[in-house]
Amino acid sequence: MRSRPDPAFVPPATDRTRPDLLGTFGMSASTHWLATATAQSVLERGGNAFDAAVAGAFVLHVVEPHLNGPGGDLTAVFATADDPTPVVLVGQGPAPTGATVEHFRAEGLDLVPGAGALAAAVPGAVDALLLLLRDHGTWELADVLAPAIGYARDGHPVTAGVVRTIGAVADLFRQHWPTSADRWLPGGAAPAVGDVVRNEALASVLDRLVAAGSADTASTDTASADATDGADAGRASRIDAARREWAEGFVATTVDAFVRAPHRHSSGTDHAGVLRAEDLADFRASYEPATTAEFRGHTIAKTGPWGQGPALLQALRMLEPLDDARLDPSSELGAHTVVEALKLALADRDAYYGDGDVPLDVLLSDAYTDDRRTCIGDRASATFRPGRVSGVEPVLPPLRTSVDTTGVAGVGEPTVPGARRGPVDERAEVPVEDRGEPFVAPDGDTRGDTCHIDVVDRWGNIVSATPSGGWLQSSPTIPELGFCLGTRLQMTWLEAGTSSTLRPGARPRTTLTPTLVLRDGVPVAALGSPGGDQQDQWQLLFLLRWIVGGYSPQQAIDAPALHTTAFPGSFWPRTWEPAGLVVEDRVGDAVIAGLEGRGHVVTRAGDWTLGRLSCVTRDPATGVLGAAANPRGAQGYAAGR
Fold first, then answer.
1. Using CB atoms within 10 A of its CB, is residue 4 exposed (0-12), middle (13-18) or buried (19+)?
2. Cβ atoms of 200 and 152 closer than 8 Å
3. Cβ distance 153 to 63 under 8 Å?
4. Which of 277, 441, 475, 494 has its CA 20 to 30 A from that of 226?
5. What is the DSSP string of 478-531?
């Protein structure tokens, strides 16, 4: 499975920030060491990859509250030991019934705000995790939730990223979101790094889900028994009881009552939310076949076009027949070629993708891909260039390079704080606290968010999951629940006729985009990254270096990263930068100068700032498992044996 480095690529660094883990028992990797340790502990006690991933994901809700929460969403791609066919777990909730364009316009808005409960889709993460546990796990819900309940009730040492985020929005909390101030500013101040923080309200919510299942022990749901294909029907029934309690019980009614009170949004104005108990009751997570494409002997599996995942497939298809030297992101020619392919794919994303009739068969076809490849020139394009699909006339999203943010603090900042233009100043190192974390404005606007977890077990079960949304700065904390709602509706447009115009009951086009890689029809890797619009961009760099360049997984994660900003952002205020390109300085002055010479508008982001990938691998021929994790931000971790 391990290949030799491709001489057409810049050689990988000899020294790695972390070892490439190898073993035969089980591997876990995530964006926080506590989630990784939790997942691995489940494997050690006989659980499978799905038990482990669900336990780890619930821990991420607790320990990375600035990046995800129970009120958010989740997508995953997985395969089982019995069936290697990749499947997508859909935990992206739709827009509520009351979330109409007319309502938002009547509120005086021309964009869905980036913070505030009016931007909340129906929470999907919790139900999705419970569904995955019911159908493919083996453990009881009480055992899977025990680590998250423990970290919430007994506490855990808070990380620098959480502290920094709370500090960024402290004034918003004090002035406009008093319930969030009560939750995150004990005694009026943000916690210090390493302080033990607790969330008794969230622990109680999880306790009540377990209790709902215990109360349902005597009943067996026939549909659940069928869905689990002979597995313990009692366990499935208990999990379904917890799902009902979440969707139809106290959580739904508490959310409904809380969001009716107007509160400050990132627009600088006050609005009430429109999410109602009936919206939660109507939603259940689901499965669907993965969307796949072939690349250099591998099958890459992604979500459908209600997410941005197929854009990665489009980019890979454009790049596949090119010479290896044009696929190396560490060279001037390779970086330029990769970025130009990404611009074309992301332009198609914004023109065509959404929760509706998307001509994906055309967008991934040979003829269309060949035509798009001819658009990659020697100079950086500063034009938004979606392709043409016969019989389809897309309504394009607005192209704004700036938004009037008078009276709204902190909007329009770069994705990576500390990013700069111009040559490297050896005396001006990017602050350590800015590395690998999302940008959070004082009004709660967040870009570059999310967390991730991957798990593979000794039987061959494998899963890549990206929980997100409902981060502590997205909307006011609901005090009885200990968490807040997400803001995924900000990824919809209020202009009529676009592929992702806000529509009640439709899923917003999410940026959550986990990946499964197969060879000869068998899974060999699961990977993903936080980072909003950058998620597939950073994963593309990994895949090129690993599949083509012959890098090891850890070398591919460590290697210098970059991404384009030359498309409308998915996060409020949804601006773009024509020919914009953000790079880690480690790409090198000569490469950066060459890219600028080609017309790219380059922003330097420091040496270790871009990407928070993790991955697990499996060699079907030998049974050897592997894992690697991101060093940026000093928080991601891999473990296994």
1. exposed
2. yes
3. no
4. 277
5. BTTTTB----GGGGSBSSTTSTTB--TTSPP-B----EEEEETTEEEEEEE---
In angstroms, rounded to a whole number, what is the distance separating the alpha carbons of residues 53 and 608?
27
37-58 pLDDT per residue, tens? 999 999 999 999 999 999 999 9
Residue 198 has pLDDT above 70, yes or no: yes
Closest-CA residue to 539 (of 308, 348, 378): 308
Closest CA to 411 of 446, 370, 364, 453: 446
CA 155 to chain centre: 25
Which CA distances in Å does 383 have to 340, 367, 599?
11, 22, 12
* Cis peptide upstream of residue 94 (ω within 30 degrees of 0): no
d(CA 320, CA 316): 6
| Mean pLDDT computed over 132-146 | 98
Q: End-to-end alpha-carbon separation of the chain, Å?
A: 18
The two structure tokens encoding residue 180: 């969030």
Nearest CA to 607 out of 424, 371, 465, 351 is that of 424
Rg (CA), the chain: 23
Give the residue carrying structure tokens 């979440």. Answer: 246
How many Cβ atoms sit within 10 Å of the Cβ of residue 211? 15
What's the CA angle centered on 196, arms 195 and 201, to 5 degrees? 135
| Torsion angle defined by CA atoms of residues 483, 489, 490 and 493, in that order, rounded to the nearest 10 degrees | -170
Amino acid letter, residue 296: R
Q: How many CA atoms lie within 13 A of 374 on its CB side?
A: 6
Specify the residue for token string 């454009």. 318
Range of weakest confidence among 203-212, 373-382, 572-581: 572-581
CA distances from 240 to 75, 90, 205, 214, 463 (A): 19, 17, 16, 11, 21
Phi, psi of 525 (to 5 degrees): -160, 145
Q: Which two tokens stand for residue 73?
A: 């969403």
- Give the model confidence (pLDDT) of 307-346 as tens digits: 999 999 999 999 999 999 999 999 999 999 999 999 999 9
Whole-Å CA distances, 524 to 86, 278, 555, 623: 11, 41, 17, 10
Spatial separation of the C-alpha atoms in residues 118 and 263, rounded to whole Å = 9
Rounded to an integer, the average pLDDT of 269-281 is 98
**DSSP strand pairing (298-302 vs 515-519):** antiparallel
DSSP string, 280-315: HHH---EEEEPEEEEETTEEEEE--TTBSHHHHHHH
> How is residue 96 annotated by DSSP?
-
273 in Cβ contact with 484 (< 8 Å): no
Cα dihedral 540→560→77→286 (10° resolution): -90
Supply the DSSP string of 443-491, one letter for each residue.
Answer: TS-EES----EEEEETTS-EEEEEEEB--TTTS--BTTTTB----GGGG
CA distance 219 to 149: 26
Burial 391-430, CB ≥16 within 10 A → b, else e:
eeebebbeeeeebebeebebbeebbbbbbbeeeeeeeeeb
Coil vs helix vs strand at 176: coil
226-265: b (≥16 Cβ within 10 Å) or e = eebeebebbbbbbbbbbbbbbbebbbbebbbebbeeebbb
Task: Say whether pTM exceeds 0.90.
Answer: yes
